[in-house]
Structure formats: structure tokens, C-alpha cells
Design brief:
about 15% strand; elongated; alpha/beta; 20 strands
């Protein structure tokens, strides 16, 4: 490397350090230290290591970049700006301000070049496992000899904080098990967290830990050694069997004479005097802010142009692939655009009432296996529970280190990492991922569920064993507050189907849905199949609530979800025997119902009919919106008990007699 190139590289790195300090100072909020310490790492990634195209941030074969320590986002914003993405200097100046592209942590869909929303530590680390699985699956399905159209890698920067979070351990273990050699992670080993030196809480041997997980581990002792960083990344690239971790010893707030290596540089501006000292020490004018020397601008824009040229070459290669494999190319283009194969819905099963009881988890399994052949983008698995959640695709193999075309995933007992990996998969165009566990263990997945909702992406979360109806396992396994807790998350669509046919329609909605995660809540116990010729059609599930069984001049509305719908239908019949007309409403999804127009809502829940009884084996919170002040709810206000389900339903009032009694009391 010539001296001139070395000089512009160092000037570029220092420019990013100064820009980061300036932006945080102007916002009077943020984290200047990490981007200042990581600037050389960012330089190596954006100047030569990664393949990306600033003119097309969605280029399918681009390398994915994840900033798991999202508080260091000024690092990413600076390099996106410098390499030619649609991030202006004004955007950098508006860091952390309302309606800015440069939020306080990277946000997918807001900032061009940001592949995933990060912030809660450990999430980005685990998202990368999903991204890596997605690349391997696409390559396994679409790559052909001489045509490697999906050959990208997953880069991430992570911090001491990421290393401490439990989800990182789950995800790292899974990545090692699957031999995801397309992952290259750089660990910002700066020894500082909010409370001070990490020695107060974190002294483990990270190198040994990751080697035990099956990772390829390297150490760069000096984070300012550009050649050592480049060599480490090169070694990681040629290690194709193991995920790579490069531990880089950095110094937080490098270049700040009084704040370097201190916790004070982590989450607070350096201060105007200190920023001036930083600039003076790096040869910048302390009286000017947000300055990019022309030679730095030219250098990084040229790096961006080289990326665009790589995309153009890929486009040419893809056209050649398309001519040789037109059917596969057409399939990928359809699926990656969010389209669905024509006629896929024809494979949805229809269940007959005379077939008897079937648990909605088992109905879901039948649906999955019926539609799998027509939806090659539908892949997933469970957290070691596929026999219980009925999520195995029987005609397909497992995705393993040896088989990248398998469609069944074994996430192991790693619910948290499963949720985060599903988000990475959902962000891989051409894939619809699902993952399953018991509803109670949705608690272990709350961070990725929330982030999926923020990003408005569509992993399908399958939660079975949905109530006290699971019986003998007792209070630790019986969900009570989970339904309302999940419903409270914006952009979530939760569906709790009443029988096998509603379950089939729930899957139809899930596959067609756009704009947020789908949560399917399913029973362990068998439920009667509602006669489609006699009662309301299950296809109405798409409206969230519908009249399942009506009565002439009803005096009362009976509303339920899931397993309790059959209960209120029996209660309706008994009330009829006593001369009381009641309408039965199946309400599998509050969110879908709220999307309907006022006329439809009035049709199902007439304002004049104020006597309403809702029945759901979960928390009663939230139901009063639908039952009004003159209605009531039969639900759970305590935890359950360990006993057979039939006994529990009697103890907690989920019986025909109790529903009838409550209904008559309302009318009285």
C-alpha cells in the first residue's frame, strides 16, 4: 500500500471519529465512544471487505451488515453517508431528531442500508444466525454449478454487552451446530460498559467459549492496526465451515484525551471542550463541525461505486442464470417480491364435522403439510417441540450442516434465539419462516416478537398448549396473561382459531398477510369441528369476528375465541331451550376485527345489543371494550392448577351451566 493511500485511510477513519463526536454533541444525546473506537473496523468493512451497492440497498446478493451494538449507530450512518447511500450530511446533523433517517439506534425501513433494527443487545447477534440460515437455504435451492447467485456473507459488529446477553449464547451455540461459515462477526472488545470497566461483571475467556461453540476465533490485539484487521477478515472469509469471531481490542472514545477508555464516553456527549480537543489532536479545525475532506469523500464514494459495479456484474450473471434455469428464476422473483404461487390455496384442507374432535395444533400440522409443496418459501421448526406443536413437514428433510435444502429446523431448547433467528429469516426475501413452542414460553421470546412488530416483518409465531386446557402440567405451563400481553403489542396480529377449519383459514391469513408478525395460538386438547353447512363459514375468520350461530331477535351476544367457542355454542342451545335467544360470535382475532369498517362491526356487534358475555380461558383484561358496561367476562383472574383439564374447566367456570347462569344474570 502506498503512503498516499495509507494517509487517506487514516484521514477517513479520523473523519468518522470527528463526525460521530459532532453528531452526538449536536443532538446532546447518544454514544460517541463506540464509533470512535470502531472507526478502523468500519473502514475495513466498507472500504474493501463487504459487497454492497449504495444505489440499490436491496441488491439480493449484497453482504448483510448488522450493528448488534446499535448504540454505535453513528459509525454505520457515517459510512453509509460516505459511500454514497441516500444519507445526507443534513441527516447526520439531525441525528436522533424527530422524523430523521438517523434514529438513536438503527431501524430497518427507515434508513437505507440498514438490514435489521437493533438496539436491545444480543438481538442483532442472533438475527445474524437467521440471515445466515436464509443465505444457505437460498443457495441450496437456487445455486447451480457455475451459477452461484446467492453467495453473500453476514457481517456483524458486537460488543461486550452483546457477549453478556443470554440470547448470544443460544445463538452462538446454534450457529456452531449448523456450521454457518458465512458469518463473520467482529467483537468490539473495549472493556467498558455503562457501570465502568467490564471486569466488575465480565471476566470470562470469550475466545475459549466461542471455540467451544465450534467457531473460528481470531484476536486482533490493536484495533487501529488496519492490516491486521484486513488479514483477520480475509482469514474469516476463507473459513467456510465455521462461523468466525474476530476479537478486536479497541479503545472507547479513541482520540479523546480525557474520555478515552472511560465509561463517561459510552452514553453521553463528550462535551464541547473535549470535542475541540479531539479535532485538534486529529488535525481538524476545532471551529468547524461536520467536515468531510474532499479526498476522504472521493475515496469512499469510489468504494461505493466499486460496489455498484459488483452489483452490475451480478445482474449480468443472474440474466445468464435466468436463461438456463427460467423456472427457478421465476419462482425466486415471485416469492422474493412477496407474491404467492397461483392456486396454493386450493391445497388448504377442509375438515368435516363427522371427523370428530381434533386439537387445533394437530389441525395446523395437517394444514402445513398440505400447503408445503406449493409454498417452497415456507420453512421453519420448533424449539425442540415439533412432536407437541405438530410443525414438522413430513415429506421434507431437516436443515443441517450437511443439508442446506432441508425445510425442518431444529432450534433446540433456545426459544429466545429461535425468535431472533426467525426475524433474520423474515428479512430474507423469498422466505416465510415459522417457529413454534408452547404459549407460556412466548415469554422467552418477547424481545424478538417486539422487534418483529416494530419492523413490520412477518415471521409466523406458533404457540400451542394455549390455556389451562393443557391440564396436569400446572401453573408453570398454563398461560393466563399471555394472550392480552401479546395483543397489546402494536402491529401484532394474533389469531386463536376455534376449530380445525378456522385453523386452516388462520394459515391462509398468515401466508397472505403483510405488515407485521402473525401469532397463531393453538390448543393441546381436541375441539369439535363446527359444521360448515350449518353454521357460519370459517372463511369469515379473515374479518376477525363473525356471526357463527345467530338467533331470531337475539337478546344476548355470546363471544369467544379458540376452545371456548364450542362452549358458548352449547350454552346457546341450552339458553334456547329456556326461551332465551342468543347470538354466538367467534372472535379469533381482535386485530383483524379492528380493521373492518363500521358497518361490519355494527352488523356483528350491534350497539343496541349491550347484553354481552365474553368467554376466554385467559386474562379478562381488554375484553370490556367489546362487552360494554352492561356485559361481563368469564376468564382467568388467577393462575391455574395442576389437574386434568376437565376438572380445571369446572373449577374456573368454563362450563355450559356457568355460561348460562352468567347470561341469565345479565338479562335479569
Amino acid at each position: 500500500m502506498n503512503v498516499e493511500t495509507q494517509n487517506v485511510e487514516q484521514l477517513g477513519i479520523d473523519t468518522v471519529r470527528v463526525l460521530s463526536a459532532d453528531a452526538v454533541q449536536k443532538a446532546n444525546s447518544g454514544h460517541p465512544g463506540a464509533p470512535m473506537g470502531l472507526a478502523p473496523v468500519g473502514h475495513v468493512l466498507w472500504s474493501e471487505a463487504m459487497n454492497y451497492s449504495p444505489t440499490n440497498p436491496e441488491w439480493p446478493d449484497r453482504d448483510r451488515f448488522i450493528l448488534s451494538n446499535g448504540h454505535a449507530c453513528m459509525l454505520q450512518y457515517c459510512y453509509l453517508h460516505l459511500t454514497g447511500y441516500d444519507i445526507s450530511m443534513d441527516d447526520l446533523k439531525n441525528f436522533r431528531q424527530l422524523n430523521s433517517k438517523t434514529a438513536g439506534h438503527p431501524e430497518y425501513g427507515l434508513t437505507p442500508g440498514v438490514d435489521v433494527t437493533t438496539g436491545p443487545l444480543g438481538q442483532g447477534f442472533a438475527n445474524g444466525v437467521g440471515f445466515a440460515i436464509g443465505q444457505k437455504y437460498l443457495a441450496g435451492r437456487y445455486n447451480k454449478p457455475g451459477h452461484h447467485i446467492f453467495d453473500y456473507k453476514i457481517y456483524a459488529i458486537c460488543s461486550d454487552g452483546d457477549m453478556m446477553e443470554g440470547v448470544t449464547s443460544e445463538a452462538a451455540s446454534l450457529a456452531g451446530q449448523l456450521e454457518l461459515g458465512n458469518m463473520i462477526y467482529l467483537y468490539d472488545d473495549n472493556h467498558i460498559s455503562i457501570e465502568g470497566d467490564t471486569d466488575i461483571a465480565f471476566t470470562e475467556d470469550v475466545d475459549a467459549r466461542f471455540k467451544a461453540y465450534g467457531w473460528h476465533v481470531q484476536v486482533v490485539e490493536d484495533g487501529n492496526d488496519i492490516e491486521a484487521l484486513k488479514n483477520a477478515v480475509y482469514n474469516a472469509k476463507i473459513e467456510i465451515r465455521k462461523p468466525s469471531l474476530i476479537k478486536v481490542r479497541t479503545h472507547i472514545a479513541y482520540g479523546s484525551p480525557n474520555k478515552v477508555d472511560t465509561a463517561g464516553a459510552h452514553g453521553s456527549p463528550l462535551g464541547e471542550k473535549e470535542v475541540r480537543l479531539v479535532k485538534e489532536g486529529m488535525g481538524f479545525d476545532p471551529n468547524q463541525s461536520f467536515v468531510v475532506p474532499k479526498e476522504v469523500s472521493d475515496y469512499y464514494l469510489e468504494c461505493g461505486k466499486k460496489g455498484t459495479e459488483k452489483e452490475q456484474k451480478w445482474n449480468e450473471a443472474y440474466e445468464a442464470y435466468k436463461k438456463e434455469f427460467p423456472e427457478l428464476a421465476a419462482e425466486y422473483e415471485l416469492l422474493s417480491s412477496g407474491g404467492l404461487p397461483e392456486g396454493w390455496k386450493d391445497n388448504l384442507p377442509v375438515f368435516k364435522a363427522e371427523e370428530g374432535k381434533i386439537a387445533t395444533r394437530k389441525a395446523s400440522g395437517k394444514v402445513l403439510n398440505a400447503i408445503a409443496a406449493s409454498l417452497p418459501d415456507l420453512i421453519g421448526g420448533s424449539a425442540d417441540l415439533s412432536p407437541s406443536t405438530d410443525t414438522n413437514l413430513d415429506k421434507y428433510e431437516s436443515f443441517t450442516a450437511e443439508n442446506r435444502t432441508g425445510r425442518n429446523f431444529h432450534f433446540g431448547i433456545r426459544e429466545h434465539a429461535m425468535g431472533s433467528a426467525l426475524n433474520g429469516l423474515a428479512l430474507t426475501k423469498g422466505i416465510i419462516p415459522y417457529g413454534a413452542t408452547f404459549l407460556i414460553f412466548s415469554e422467552y421470546m418477547r424481545p424478538p416478537i417486539r422487534l418483529a412488530a416494530i419492523m413490520k416483518i412477518k415471521p409466523v409465531f406458533i404457540y400451542t398448549h394455549d390455556s389451562i386446557g393443557l391440564g396436569e402440567d400446572g401453573t408453570t405451563h398454563q398461560p393466563v396473561e399471555q394472550l392480552i400481553s401479546l395483543r397489546s403489542i402494536p402491529n401484532i396480529t394474533l389469531i386463536r382459531p376455534a376449530d380445525a377449519n378456522e385453523t386452516a383459514q388462520a394459515w391462509r391469513v398468515a401466508i397472505e398477510h403483510k405488515g407485521g408478525p402473525i401469532v397463531l395460538v393453538l390448543t393441546r386438547q381436541g375441539l369439535p369441528t363446527i359444521d360448515q353447512d350449518k353454521y357460519g363459514k370459517a372463511t369469515e375468520l379473515e374479518k376477525g369476528a363473525y356471526i357463527l350461530s345467530d338467533a331470531e331477535n337475539p337478546k344476548l351476544l355470546l363471544i369467544a375465541t379458540g376452545s371456548e367457542v364450542a362452549l358458548i355454542m352449547d350454552a346457546q342451545a341450552k339458553l334456547k331451550e329456556q326461551g332465551i335467544a342468543a347470538r354466538v360470535i367467534s372472535m379469533p382475532s381482535w386485530e383483524l376485527f379492528e380493521k373492518q369498517d363500521a358497518a361490519y362491526k355494527e352488523k356483528v356487534l350491534p350497539k343496541a345489543l349491550k347484553k354481552r358475555l365474553a368467554v376466554e380461558a385467559g386474562s379478562t383484561l381488554g375484553w370490556h371494550k367489546y362487552v360494554t358496561d352492561e356485559g361481563t367476562v368469564i376468564g382467568m383472574t388467577t393462575f391455574g392448577e395442576s389437574a386434568p383439564a376437565e376438572e380445571l374447566y369446572k373449577v374456573f367456570g368454563f362450563t355450559v351451566d356457568n355460561v348460562v347462569e352468567k347470561a341469565k344474570a345479565l338479562l335479569a
